[in-house]
Amino acid sequence: MAPSTRDRISVDLRGLRAVLFARARERGLTPSDLVRGLLNEALGAAAPQPSAAQAPLPSTVSSGSVRLSIRLSREQAQLLASAAKAAGLPTGDYITGLAAGVPALFQGGHRADHLAALLASNAELSTLSRNIHHLTALLRQAEVRAAQEYRAMLDTLADDARTHLKLASAVLAELRPRAGSRAPTDRPEA
After folding, report:
1. Residue ranges making up the domain that contains 35
2. Segments of the chain assigned E as strands
3. What are phi and psi of 15, to 5 degrees?
4. pLDDT in tens, 72-84
5. How many Å separate Cα 17 from the centre of its chain?
6. Where is pLDDT greater, at 103 or 140?
7. Is residue 81 assigned to a domain?
8. Residue 185 lies inside a defined structural domain of this protein
């Protein structure tokens, strides 16, 4: 991988973050562009200033999401990326799920396997629904002999529905944060 041409430095703003973002928003700049401009003035540098038309507001201002930086060894970063990929989640969502104690992630389960089982059960329930509709149509047409072919399906209908509901509740329990978890959610509580 080629080295970055960007020069980066991290600065502890010590409470100035809100003021920085407000001032950048007033000027129609990103916080980075504002800081670069102020540094240019303070240092007497002759670097080009970005125009307000070129600099969109940062997405973090309006979306409510923030960037979190963590230091990991290369092996730890690869392990984290692999685990998130195996779970079928973006890395940030995977970390949040671990922090929230989502059993499917926390106990080494595979979220994708749980979802696949739920989708398969939903497909079976959908087929069952179509069969019931077809049976109803046959009974309306007084097609008793054809309707009798559905007898076996009707005999196991209650058990099939209970099995699906047990599976659905188990999957949802495995994918939901543990009770008492304070992990943030994207959706308001209903």
Report:
1. 17-63
2. none
3. 90, 0
4. 899 999 988 888 8
5. 27
6. 140
7. no
8. no
